[in-house]
């Protein structure tokens, strides 16, 4: 096992190149299952644990995948099995995204129940409601969901109770090969939805309205593999923007797309951070002083929940008191306890956290409780006095490509060290506490 060690206090400078978006590439890989002919060639595929996991899900179905130099080739001419096994789905709930394309193409999908995880219960009722509206029968038992249809799915009008990213994607994929027209209302508008729609349309699908509140899909008979380049990761970009701001540095975020980052840019500007945008990326430079702000997470184009913990790390050192409201996931303040170990002063009541600013952060031993919480601890460590030691970093590796190398290139004093799990437990017992076992998924 590995830990990340950060020694804080160094202003970062230079350029960081943003990788392809995890949350765009996962549904795109799932969508490649729909291609009965041709090979999908997906470019800028980040070498992340999640990408390897979903590729294994496809392999388990007898689909051929080849990954080299951030290019993933998927040959789905033959699908030999229709099951996404528990061992893979438990590692990553986004594996459930293969349900829509398998069902749409093969008329049958058996997927292990993704279940709840660290940040909240994360139900899939809206995915299933969509599949049923398209004519599928759903059965749930022994930890699996089975969806089947007699012949092609049938286009339908579907209203989502919540604008779920995953449900929008899964239903969109299932509907591409359905008979007739599907209209999905109250859909998610995230840039990753638009990237998926572009991929599907390149394959021969007829998807209109992605990026707005209503998507219309005319079903087609067949889809083919194509070449596609994944959009840059707006959450990785936002994380490095905060790395620049929290260290009082100046960093060029190469490849970041302004339009995808509007709520993050606006909040950073309100805090006082200097932002300059050009066609190749975004320059982020130190603020003379950092001011407290309030923020509330919302579906896109609102402030992203995936940036809430990272923003909180910056608010801890800003002047004044900030109020952070989390409206998407009921358990997404786990980083607060870890921040407290670093001298953070935050009071949580329900879905609201009140952050006392102007805190002198002190390096400490902390644990990454989920992906973005882990990223936020690295950020806090970059600003803290002394050494921060972050364990459970497998969560961070789900979503950040070479995070320690990228930060080192910007001048950070950061690295990874190997350790035995038994050493850690011994150490925790000696100081009178044993951490609960963290869930596998973030
Ligand atoms: C792989 C991926 O793209 N993950 C992102 C995706 O997750 P994911 O697609 O799982 O998130 P959703 O948009 O589905 O969830 C948003 C809200 O809808 C609720 N809900 C969702 C589905 C459903 O059937 N019923 C229901 O009630 C959830 O509990 C949550 O409160 O969007 C989240 C919200 O921006 C991000 O944090 C995740 O990083
Ligand atoms: C919560 C996240 O991802 P996932 O939906 O894959 O758990 C995330 O990217 O912050």
UniProtKB/TrEMBL annotation:
Main location: cytoplasm
UniProt-annotated binding residues for phosphoenolpyruvate: 22-23
Protein name: UDP-N-acetylglucosamine 1-carboxyvinyltransferase
Positions contributing to UDP-N-acetyl-alpha-D-glucosamine binding: 93, 122-126, 306, 328
Modified residues (2-(S-cysteinyl)pyruvic acid O-phosphothioketal): 117
Top EC class of this enzyme: transferase
Gene: murA
One Pfam family, short name: EPSP_synthase
Span of domain Enolpyruvate transferase: 7-407
Annotated organism of origin: Chengkuizengella axinellae
Keywords: Cell cycle, Cell division, Cell shape, Cell wall biogenesis/degradation, Cytoplasm, Peptidoglycan synthesis, Pyruvate, Transferase
Task performed by this protein: Cell wall formation. Adds enolpyruvyl to UDP-N-acetylglucosamine.
EC number: 2.5.1.7
Active-site residues (renumbered): 117 (proton donor)
NCBIfam families: murA, PRK09369.1, PRK12830.1
């Amino acid at each position: 096992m590995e830990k990340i060690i950060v020694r804080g206090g160094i202003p970062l400078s230079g350029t960081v190149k943003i990788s392809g978006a995890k949350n765009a590439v996962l549904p795109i890989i799932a969508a490649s299952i729909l291609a009965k002919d041709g090979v999908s060639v997906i470019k800028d595929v980040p070498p992340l644990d999640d990408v390897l996991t979903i590729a294994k899900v496809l392999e388990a179905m007898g689909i051929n995948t080849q990954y080299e130099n951030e290019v993933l080739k998927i040959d789905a001419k033959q699908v030999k099995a229709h099951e996404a096994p528990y061992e893979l789905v438990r590692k990553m709930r986004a594996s459930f995204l293969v349900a829509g394309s398998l069902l749409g193409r093969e008329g049958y999908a058996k997927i292990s129940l993704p279940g709840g995880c660290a940040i909240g219960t994360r139900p899939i009722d809206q995915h299933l409601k969509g599949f049923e509206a398209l004519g599928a029968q759903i059965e749930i038992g022994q930890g699996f969901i089975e969806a089947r249809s007699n012949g092609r799915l049938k286009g339908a009008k579907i209203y989502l109770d919540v604008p779920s990213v995953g449900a929008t994607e899964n239903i969109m994929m299932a509907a591409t090969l359905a008979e007739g027209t599907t209209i999905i209302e109250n859909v998610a508008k995230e840039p990753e939805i638009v990237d998926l729609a572009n991929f599907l349309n390149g394959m021969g699908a007829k998807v209109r309205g992605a990026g707005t509140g209503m998507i219309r899909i005319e079903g087609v008979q067949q889809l083919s593999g194509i070449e596609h380049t994944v959009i840059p990761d707006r959450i990785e970009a936002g994380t490095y923007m905060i790395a620049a701001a929290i260290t009082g540095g100046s960093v060029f975020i190469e490849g970041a797309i302004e339009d995808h980052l509007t709520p993050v840019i606006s909040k950073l500007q309100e805090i006082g951070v200097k932002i300059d945008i050009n066609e190749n990326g975004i320059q982020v430079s130190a603020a003379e002083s950092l001011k407290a702000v309030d923020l509330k997470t919302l579906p896109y184009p609102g402030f992203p929940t995936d940036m809430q913990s990272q923003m909180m790390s910056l608010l801890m050192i800003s002047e004044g008191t900030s109020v952070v409201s989390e409206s998407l996931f009921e358990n997404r303040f786990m980083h607060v306890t870890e921040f407290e170990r670093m001298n953070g002063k935050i009071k949580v009541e329900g879905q609201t956290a009140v952050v006392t600013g102007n805190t002198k952060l002190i390096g400490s031993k902390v644990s990454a409780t989920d992906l973005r919480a882990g990223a936020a601890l690295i950020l806090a460590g970059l600003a803290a006095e002394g050494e921060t030691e972050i364990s459970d970093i497998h969560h961070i590796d789900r979503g950040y490509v070479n995070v320690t190398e990228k930060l080192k290139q910007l001048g950070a004093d950061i690295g990874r060290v190997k350790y035995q799990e038994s050493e850690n437990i011994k150490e925790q017992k000696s100081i009178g506490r044993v951490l609960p076992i963290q869930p596998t998924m973030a």
